[in-house]
Amino acid sequence: MLEKIKHKMLRPRQKWEKNLIVLWFGTFMAGIAFSLVMPFLSLYIDTLGNFSTRQLNIYSGFTYSATFLVTAIVSPFWGRLADRKGRKLMILRASLGMAFVIGLMGFVTNVYQLIFLRLIQGVFSGYVSNANALVATETPKEKSGRALGFLTTGAVSGTLFGPFVGGVIAAVFGYRLTFLITGVILILVFLLSAFFVHEDYVPANTENLKNSREIFHSLKNTKLIIGMLIATFLIQLGNFSISPIISLYVRELMHNVGPITIASGIVASVPGIATLLAAPRFGTLGDRIGTARILKLGMLFAVIVFIPMAFVGNVWQFGILRFLIGISNAAMLPAVQTLLAKNTPAYATGRIFSYNQSFQALGNVAGPLIGSSISGMWNYNSVFISTALIIFLGFFWVNFSTKKSSS
């Protein structure tokens, strides 16, 4: 046994193993970079002008949504280009473009410049998705599952730690320097990807691919697939409806006193911890009692947790409820992915999952806009009530979509 371990440690790493290590670090740093500024973005906007509460909420919603709106539009174009030119080029495009755009956010003088740069940021999306695709194509098939599972932990871990790291950096160095540090991180990711990631890419033959109408006509359970796509939209809409107001709500709960950015970072991060811990367990449970049942239970649990968020008296209560939302996310989002995978033929899996990404991005756009509009018309508390209502309606939709499913 010891000889086997020693041989494994001493043998030269294969190309796919080197790619995996570099891209794990890349996705980890990209996850940190993408989520680093989230806890204080609304607070940063507040420094760019003299805004009323309503104006601040609306501008925050537009700023959050801008990136996802452009991502939803340009993703199909980048996908077609990746089929012709390879995944590595898309990885380099995304990391270098994001480095400069996010770095420039530290120099804006008004909110319109920030919104514009957030729009441009959406153009350079796709590092993590293309890293997954490159690992999937370059890794031996018998080892691809383990490799992709390992790679996924990079992005999840980075996204988990990003808000906390961003909150600490913003508290110590200020908002603007945080954007510059993020840009430097992404330049490092670009350099590592450029020099240490290797790809033997063969352009895909697209002549025999079915079009979208043929794909949906060939599905055995079209209602369930469409249902899951809309469920993804509703789940993301609900989750992201509170994104623009989290730091503002934390500031209100702390009465504008104390380490607000650090507290906001912790509150933004805790759902990720719960999701990371709970998701594998829900996956195993779903195989035993049915994935659709896990999805519905997760949505009901989310409704139960979102409602008391509107009535918390301090940031600790809010943080505990945010942790519980992470548990509901661990039940909802992976369950949707599993139901899509179980009910989609192999030749259509890539296309269906790309549609699911588009619906996810649309939810990411609509959520902040709805949340900021509701908080602008009423108050922060009403956002949590409306989010619970959205998820509750989503529960009935999922129940209808999965009525005849045995998954």
Automatic annotation (TrEMBL):
<feature type="transmembrane region" description="Helical">
    <location>
        <begin position="90"/>
        <end position="109"/>
    </location>
</feature>
<feature type="transmembrane region" description="Helical">
    <location>
        <begin position="57"/>
        <end position="78"/>
    </location>
</feature>
<feature type="transmembrane region" description="Helical">
    <location>
        <begin position="147"/>
        <end position="173"/>
    </location>
</feature>
<dbReference type="InterPro" id="IPR001958">
    <property type="entry name" value="Tet-R_TetA/multi-R_MdtG-like"/>
</dbReference>
<dbReference type="GO" id="GO:0005886">
    <property type="term" value="C:plasma membrane"/>
</dbReference>
<keyword id="KW-1133">Transmembrane helix</keyword>
<dbReference type="InterPro" id="IPR020846">
    <property type="entry name" value="MFS_dom"/>
</dbReference>
<feature type="transmembrane region" description="Helical">
    <location>
        <begin position="294"/>
        <end position="313"/>
    </location>
</feature>
<feature type="transmembrane region" description="Helical">
    <location>
        <begin position="179"/>
        <end position="203"/>
    </location>
</feature>
<keyword id="KW-0812">Transmembrane</keyword>
<feature type="domain" description="Major facilitator superfamily (MFS) profile">
    <location>
        <begin position="19"/>
        <end position="406"/>
    </location>
</feature>
<feature type="transmembrane region" description="Helical">
    <location>
        <begin position="262"/>
        <end position="282"/>
    </location>
</feature>
<feature type="transmembrane region" description="Helical">
    <location>
        <begin position="319"/>
        <end position="340"/>
    </location>
</feature>
<keyword id="KW-0472">Membrane</keyword>
<keyword id="KW-0813">Transport</keyword>
<protein>
    <submittedName>
        <fullName>MFS transporter, DHA1 family, multidrug resistance protein</fullName>
    </submittedName>
</protein>
<dbReference type="Pfam" id="PF07690">
    <property type="entry name" value="MFS_1"/>
</dbReference>
<feature type="transmembrane region" description="Helical">
    <location>
        <begin position="21"/>
        <end position="45"/>
    </location>
</feature>
<dbReference type="InterPro" id="IPR011701">
    <property type="entry name" value="MFS"/>
</dbReference>
<feature type="transmembrane region" description="Helical">
    <location>
        <begin position="224"/>
        <end position="250"/>
    </location>
</feature>
<keyword id="KW-1003">Cell membrane</keyword>
<dbReference type="InterPro" id="IPR036259">
    <property type="entry name" value="MFS_trans_sf"/>
</dbReference>
<feature type="transmembrane region" description="Helical">
    <location>
        <begin position="384"/>
        <end position="402"/>
    </location>
</feature>
<dbReference type="GO" id="GO:0022857">
    <property type="term" value="F:transmembrane transporter activity"/>
</dbReference>
